[in-house]
Amino acid sequence: MVWSFERAARPFGFTEGPIWTGEALLFTGIRNSRIMRYSPRNGSCVEFATGTNEANGLPLDRQGRLYGSEGSGRCMARYETDGNRVTVADCREGKYLFLN
Q1: How far apart are CA 47 and CA 94, in angstroms?
Q2: Triad 55, 52, 95: Cα angle to 5°
Q3: What is the CA radius of gyration of the chain?
Q4: Helix and strand tally (H, E) in the chain?
Q5: How far apart are CA 1 and CA 25, in angstroms?
Q6: Mean pLDDT by 10 residues, the chain (100 residues)
Q7: Segment 58-67, tens digit of pLDDT
Q8: Nearest partner of 12 among 37, 22, 57, judged by Cα
Q9: Angle at alpha carbon of residue 82, lines to 10 and 8, rounded to 5°
Q10: Count of other CB atoms within 10 angstroms of residue 14
Q11: Dist. CA 77–CA 89, nearest whole Å
Q12: b/e for 68-86, b at 16 or more Cβ within 10 A?
């Protein structure tokens, strides 16, 4: 199989994620603490969420809700479609999930 690649959007520093939602590609701009949404349908790339505490590793649950591992927030968060952010887990047995 031969692959060809095309730059879809720019400029970005270090990105992570990514996850396909069925309609768009979501990926994180870790240093800028934001999640971007790229739509191949119209070629747009816009901010999906901001203030994500350097989130990366974006999974979706069975209901299609987006989660991220927030490094500087030291938690797992869920990003709601209305723009709200919910901390799902931030410690276990009194210890934070991530080290800074």
Answers
A1: 34
A2: 65
A3: 14
A4: 0, 10
A5: 23
A6: 80 84 93 92 92 92 93 90 89 74
A7: 999 999 999 9
A8: 37
A9: 15
A10: 11
A11: 7
A12: bbbbebbbbbebeeeeebe
- Nearest Cα to 67, choosing from 79, 75, 52? 79
Looking at the DSSP assignment, which residues form a beta bridge with residue 19? 26
Please give the model's pTM, rounded to 2 decimal places.
0.83
What are the two backbone dihedrals, phi and then psi, of residue 23, each rounded to the nearest 5 degrees?
-130, -30
How many C-alpha atoms does 50 have within 13 Å on its Cβ side? Answer: 3
In angstroms, the CA 47 to CA 62 distance is 23
Domains along the chain with CATH numbers: 15-96 (2.40.10)
